[in-house]
Specification:
single chain; mainly alpha; Fic-like fold; Arc Repressor Mutant, subunit A; 14 helices; 4 strands
Length: 348
């Protein structure tokens, strides 16, 4: 089994793109902390929206789906699961809530990772929750004809418990010793976690939950207000590509995680930018139609009612609908399509 020693990362010279992304995120983090102190009431709706989006998106990446309406009902605990997919969605919801509410009290240890994985499957009849893999797994791509191409062969099951202990211990030592900026260390840890692939199922979802947990524990809580998982889902082809490149040579300890680091940092930076934009809109003391108008001005190209609901969560859905109707009548925007296929564009 390959060795894990994150102390060695202090000897690496990171390229200017990584350093630039880290510097920008530090600036946004400082401003976010100011927002959190001055405008806590403004942010409650953002938290609720982000939880639903994260739960839906992280499961969707793995092909676990239901309707958006059902996801909201499941997240609000207003219904019970109808099938296996919805059972796993509810499990993700509960683990995400646990992280949101108790991240300060969840240390990075294999025993806690196993407990989170157990809870991910608490509504499922699968018996794999809370257990490391018992059979060899692999990372594969399903081709259009249904055949599978093995992209990566993870560690053997007998190597897995020791490897997870090793990356957790090494991560904690590196954080305590300030070996490297946590923003660089977290993607490296997640890349190693995915290359180990410690579970028979749920590795991708657990990796994203652990990303959230580690970011929160290191003070980067933007994922509470803007869904990081949703941004990954929208760019999942790039996500898979950088993971594949970052896993090349991993077993020999010769892999370069740089592309994955840049990808994750780019996602985090995008979330911070969205956070500032939405807080700016939410903080305005304006009538509903003017808040909707301001949100529309931030959009380029096509947008839907749901897009605007995301930007102005303080405005009720009925008011957003009425505001869009008013703005159509004014000629400020144009409506296209009907029913679920409705979208809008801004007039020049």
């Amino acid at each position: 089994m390959r060795a894990f020693n994150y102390d060695n990362l202090r000897n690496i010279s990171w390229d200017s793109e990584i350093l630039g992304l880290v510097a920008q995120i530090h600036e946004y983090k400082g401003r976010q902390e100011l927002f959190l102190r001055q405008k806590p009431a403004v942010l409650d709706r953002l938290v609720k929206i982000a939880k639903v989006q994260s739960t839906e998106a992280s499961n969707k990446i793995e092909g676990i789906v239901t309707t958006s309406t059902r996801v909201k009902q499941l997240c609000d605990d207003k219904t019970t699961p109808r099938n296996r997919d919805e059972e796993e969605i509810m499990g993700y919801r509960d683990v995400l809530n646990t992280i949101h509410e108790s991240y300060e009290y969840i240390p990075l240890k294999s025993s806690y990772i196993l407990q989170l994985h157990r809870d991910l499957y608490q509504y499922s009849d699968k018996s794999i929750g809370g257990r490391f893999k018992t059979t060899q797994n692999y990372v594969a791509e399903t081709r259009p004809d249904g055949t599978q191409l093995v992209r990566f062969m993870p560690l053997e099951p007998y190597e897995t418990p020791e490897a997870i202990d090793a990356i957790c211990d090494s991560f904690n030592r590196a954080i305590d010793g300030c070996v490297i900026d946590p923003l660089v260390l977290i993607p490296i840890f997640i890349n190693d976690f995915l290359c180990i692939h410690p579970f028979n199922d749920g590795n991708g979802r657990m990796s994203r939950l652990l990303t959230t947990l580690l970011l929160y524990r290191c003070g980067y809580v933007v994922g509470k207000y803007i869904s990081i998982e949703s941004k990954i889902e929208r760019t999942k082809q790039k996500y898979y590509g950088v993971l594949e490149r970052s896993g090349s040579g991993w077993h020999e300890g010769k892999n370069n995680p740089g592309d994955f680091i840049k990808y994750i940092l780019g996602i985090i930076l995008s979330a911070y930018r969205d956070f500032e934009e939405r807080v700016d809109i939410l903080d305005e003391k304006l009538p509903a139609v003017d808040l909707v108008r301001k949100a529309i001005l931030s959009k380029i190209g096509k947008f839907t009612k749901s897009d605007i609901e995301e930007l102005v969560p303080s405005v009720k859905k009925t008011s957003i609908g009425n505001s869009l109707k008013t703005l159509v009548e004014e000629g400020f925007i144009e409506r296209h399509g009907r029913g679920k296929n409705t979208f809008y564009t801004r007039n020049q």
